[in-house]
Structures are given as structure tokens and as C-alpha cells.
Specification:
The structure holds two protein chains of two kinds. Chain A is mainly α. In chain A, helix 1 runs parallel beside helix 3, helix 2 runs parallel beside helix 5 and helix 4 packs antiparallel against helix 5. Chain B is an all-alpha fold. Chain B is 80% helix and 0% strand. In chain B, helix 1 packs parallel to helix 3, helix 2 packs antiparallel against helix 3 and helix 4 packs antiparallel against helix 5. Chain B is globular. The chains are: A mainly alpha, B mainly alpha.
């Protein structure tokens, strides 16, 4: 029980800093007119969770035990990816009169994240 | 002089990282607690929906309360701690993606589509409601 909380806490500290780094890095490179940073964070996180999800299906995998899963998935990837920034950015685009950009952001985010989790899962299943 | 200013810029960046990391840890622990407390209803990923909807509401409320016309002053550090840290760590796009994928993988296409539709609509409605409530609170100022 306690080790579960510790695993989530450690993973989330790394995941939060990774998100802050990646989204800041992308924003500085390509500008902030469109939320590319959050999009890249969420899509890459979806790809990784697909890989981890496939690996956890075999009992021999480290990820099949609770604490490594809580560290890598609930902690790290859970904190790395974000819905709150996604929602706020969609609202900001819509309020700014950029409804089509807001709509594209929503559709592209959901579409690419589902494609990425499928790709990660399929890829990891091939190499198992 | 130049070395002093780069030093303080680095120190400032380190503090912002610490704000995000500590907030993210609190948010993630709250998300973990929610996942332990909220049951799955016939395989529907309710815990993830709950954190994403409440997290969207909180970020909408807080960002407008502490925004340019807000009644509540918050500096960059507090905003990063609450928004990028707590709200960012509390909500999760990756769990939503994996859970939707698993439903599709199990052939439960209807439930998967329902999860996508309900999630996107309620996330956006929640951030909008939070923003509207904060605007009302902001207008109370001085009255």
C-alpha cells in the first residue's frame, strides 16, 4: 500500500518535469499559436502507454507487478500526459475566435493519441 | 553582471521545475486515490473520466480567477504549481487512450466510442463552466 504511493510519487515527479521540459522546448521552437507542445506530450505518452500495456500482458514482465506499473504508468505517464491543459487550450482557441483551430486541435489530439496507443501496443506485441 | 543574471535565471527555472514537480506529485497522488475509490461501472473507465472532468473544471476556474482581469493575484510560480503541476498531474490523456484502446481491442466498440464522446464533451464543458464561474466571481469585485 505504502510502496504503491511511493511508486506513484516518484514516477509523477519525473513525468511532470518531463512534460514541462518537452512542452517548453516545443513552444520555444515552433511558437505558441497552436499548442504543439501539449499535443506532442500526449501523443508520445499514448505511444509509450501502448508499449507498456502490451508488455504488462505477459506475466514474466516486470510491468505485470503492481509497483513498477504504478511507477511507470500511473506515476510517470499519468503525470507526463495531461487533459487539463488540453481543455484549457481548446477553450482559449475557441474564445479567441479560432473555432476551426480549436476543433482541429480536439480531433487531432484524440485521433493521434488513439493511433499512437494502437501503434505502441502492436509494436510491443510483435517483439514479445 | 552577466553571470549574475544567468545564475538567477537558472535559479528561477529550477524553482519553476520544483513547482511543477511537487504539484504534479500531489495531483498524481490524488488521481491514484480517485482510481482506488471510484469503481469501474461495467468496464467503463469512470475514475479517469472523473479526474479529467474535475481537473478541467479546476484549471478553467483557477486560470480565469488568477488571469489578467482576475480577482485573485497569483505569480508565475503559483500558477505553474497549480496549473502545470497539480492539474497536469491529476488529469491524464495516456490512461484515457489506453482504456479506450482496450475497449476497442476487446471488441466493445460501442463502449469505446461512448467513452470518447462523453470524455471530450464533458472535459470541454467542464473547463468552460469553470471559466464562466470564475468570470462571475471576478465581476463581484468592488461591488
Amino acid at each position: 500500500m505504502i510502496s504503491g504511493f511511493v511508486s506513484v510519487a516518484l514516477g509523477s515527479v519525473l513525468g511532470g518535469m518531463a512534460r514541462y521540459f518537452v512542452s517548453g522546448f516545443v513552444a520555444r521552437r515552433v511558437g505558441e499559436t497552436f499548442p504543439w507542445g501539449t499535443l506532442i506530450v500526449n501523443v508520445s505518452g499514448a505511444f509509450l502507454i501502448g508499449i507498456f500495456g502490451a508488455l504488462a500482458e505477459s506475466d514474466a514482465s516486470t510491468l505485470a507487478s503492481p509497483d513498477p506499473w504504478l511507477f511507470a504508468v500511473t506515476g510517470f505517464l499519468g503525470c507526463y500526459t495531461t487533459v487539463s491543459s488540453f481543455s484549457l487550450q481548446s477553450l482559449a482557441l475557441a474564445r479567441d475566435g479560432q473555432s476551426s483551430r480549436a476543433g482541429s486541435y480536439v480531433v487531432i489530439s484524440v485521433g493521434l493519441c488513439l493511433a499512437a496507443v494502437t501503434a505502441g501496443f502492436t509494436l510491443a506485441s510483435l517483439f514479445k | 553582471m552577466k553571470t549574475v543574471s544567468t545564475k538567477s535565471a537558472k535559479w528561477n527555472a529550477a524553482i519553476l521545475y520544483a513547482c511543477v514537480a511537487s504539484g504534479g506529485m500531489l495531483g498524481s497522488l490524488a488521481r491514484y486515490l480517485a482510481s482506488l475509490a471510484i469503481p469501474l461501472v461495467s468496464g467503463f473507465p469512470l475514475p479517469t473520466l472523473f479526474v479529467n472532468v474535475t481537473g478541467s473544471f479546476i484549471i478553467g476556474l483557477y486560470s480565469t480567477l488568477t488571469g489578467p482581469d482576475g480577482r485573485w493575484f497569483a505569480g508565475t510560480r503559483q500558477r505553474q504549481f497549480v496549473m502545470t503541476g497539480i492539474c497536469g498531474g491529476y488529469t491524464t490523456f495516456s490512461a484515457f487512450s489506453l482504456e479506450t484502446f482496450r475497449l476497442l481491442h476487446e471488441g466493445r466498440t460501442g463502449t469505446a466510442c461512448l467513452n470518447i464522446a462523453i470524455s471530450v464533451v464533458t472535459w470541454l464543458a467542464a473547463v468552460w463552466l469553470g471559466h464562466r464561474l470564475a468570470r462571475r466571481l471576478n465581476r463581484l469585485k468592488g461591488s
